[in-house]
Amino acid sequence: MSSEDVQCSSKTKRLHFLLIPLMEQGHMIPMVDLARLLTAHDSLVTFATSPVNLNRIRPIIDQAAASSLPIRFVELRFPVVDVGLPEGCESIDLLPSVDLILIFMNALSLLRNSLEAYLRIPNKAGWPKPDCLISDNHHHWTVDVARSLNIPRLIFHGPSCFFLLCDHLINRHRAELEAAVAAASDGFTVLQGLPHPIRISKQDVFTLSPLDPDKSKYKETIRVAEESADGVLVNSFMELEPKNFERYREEKSKPVWPVGPLSLYKEDLDVKAARGRASSIDNKILFQWLDRQEVGSVVLVSFGSIVRNTMAQLIELGHGLEASGRPFIWVVKEVMEENVPGAEVWITEFEKMVEGRGMIIRGWAPQAVILGHVAVGGFVTHCGWNSILEALATGVVMATWPHFYDQFLNERLVVEVLKSGVAVGIEQTDYLGVEKHNEAKVKVRREEVERVVENLMGGGEAGEERRQRARELGRQARAAMEEGGSSWKGLQDVINYVSEHQRKYQGENISY
């Protein structure tokens, strides 16, 4: 029996959640985890996204069907060609140019017609209409869908509560912050209003509060839609940033629930390894190699789904890893995508040079599972929030190498507040930190890579304190997701909130 065939009698009191993720790997993955976690709390879930994105999570869909999980995966037509995007570019990481991102984001509302058409189809399995809509905050168009169904609309936020609070404060105080960074000799000013005040740069202000009229208009549309939401789910946990949650709730004047780290959702190893999409490496070979390494000796190097390094930077990074003398796993997606000329030839030769000590993964890697292996002791990361959470959940220290958007603020949280990482020393540049048409661009030289790896994996007394702190954060993360933990309670509070709304407005909703 497939997950879509689960029968629901009229007497069933299970809640039905409609989930709509942003089409980008860093947003899709935690929403899939949330869907399965909701079913573990005895709820029904409809997960709606585009065909390309459903195909990417096919292993998860098949596993859900095999386990008869009450999840319906619904295909929504996303007419990208109609707005000038290439055929098949249904996820941000598939866009051939960063210049197309705003077009992509503005096109998200085109999903509405397909979703509403689906909701009008009588359900043969007897599923009730949705009791709650949970959408990524970028899906501002879901406001009207929730209103038409007369159900709560909750926002799912992928970033940390720390970033959300920074974003909120920067937008509120944009003018004065612009003046402060312009007047400062070093281009930095202190962002007030945080439990742990931090220094921010001109680029932080302009990234989160852009001057470009089109970007500003889009951001304002998102902000207005978010203000109308009934509550906010955050992929973080209370023990990690208690004061940030307290301040953000005060600022928003609405419920804000911690529900993470969602990467700790319990499941079989093979299923966990397929989070996001199928692994590009034979997992048996990968874990046989890891099993041969000493505990805590391996460095994982991975930069997420969007970041692209130049050929020159790949060479410097590779030679720095080789010179460090440490065993490592390096995820080099640039090779599989064939968008960096010469990468395959060079990586093949490099692979021979480090045979036995270094493992190269071309494409998608089962990152969360790798980080959970006892052999892995350090993580060189782009500071995407999912990656940071996966490292925190497994007690692994990080070397922070941010590239764009929230990643520079995430770095400050890891290094300055949590004190569980070391900074590579990257300076923020353009809007997305992506160098255009400059294959010679190098931000970190091989000597710096070697130095950072040694500091991360060694570091003397300070290094040991970081590792102890990381292990404690890992223990707290796991406790948060266990039954009775802060995030377990957070999700249960979400369910109770929706149940109360259902009882209050039962019979008023529009059927489909």
The count of β-strands is 15
Low-confidence stretches: 431-437
Please identify, by name, the CATH architecture of the largest domain: 3-Layer(aba) Sandwich
Strand content: 5-15%
| Terminal Cα span | 24 Å
What is the radius of gyration computed over CA atoms, rounded to a whole number of angstroms? 23 Å
Measured as a percent range, the helix fraction is 40-55%
According to CATH, the fold-level topology of the largest domain is: Rossmann fold
Coarse structural class: alpha/beta
What is the makeup of the main sheet?
7 strands, parallel
CATH superfamily label of the largest domain? Glycogen Phosphorylase B
- Overall average pLDDT: 88
Instruction: Please list the strands of the largest sheet in the order they lie side by side.
Output: 3-2-1-4-5-8-9
Q: In one word, what is the shape? A: globular
Number of domains: 2
Number of alpha- plus pi-helical segments = 22
Q: Which CATH class of the largest domain?
A: Alpha Beta
GO molecular function: UDP-glucosyltransferase activity
Pfam family, one: UDPGT
Protein name: Glycosyltransferase
InterPro entries: UDP_glucos_trans
Protein described:
- This is Glycosyltransferase.
- It holds the Pfam family UDPGT.
- Keywords: Transferase.
- The chain has 512 residues and is α/β, with parallel strands linked by helices.
- It folds into 2 domains: 1-157 and 482-512, Rossmann fold, CATH 3.40.50; 278-477, Glycogen Phosphorylase B (Rossmann fold, 3-Layer(aba) Sandwich).
- It has helices at residues 25-40, 51-56, 58-66, 101-106, 111-119, 142-149, 161-172, 174-183, 202-208, 213-227, 242-252, 269-273, 283-291, 311-324, 333-337, 343-353, 367-371, 385-393, 407-417, 446-457, 460-481, 486-505; strands at residues 16-20, 44-49, 71-75, 132-136, 153-157, 188-191, 198-201, 231-234, 256-258, 298-302, 328-331, 358-361, 376-381, 397-400, 421-423.
- The strands form 3 sheets. Strands 3-2-1-4-5-8-9 form a 7-stranded parallel β-sheet, sandwiched between helices.
- Helix 14 (311-324) runs parallel beside helix 16.
- The model is unreliable at 431-437 (pLDDT under 50).
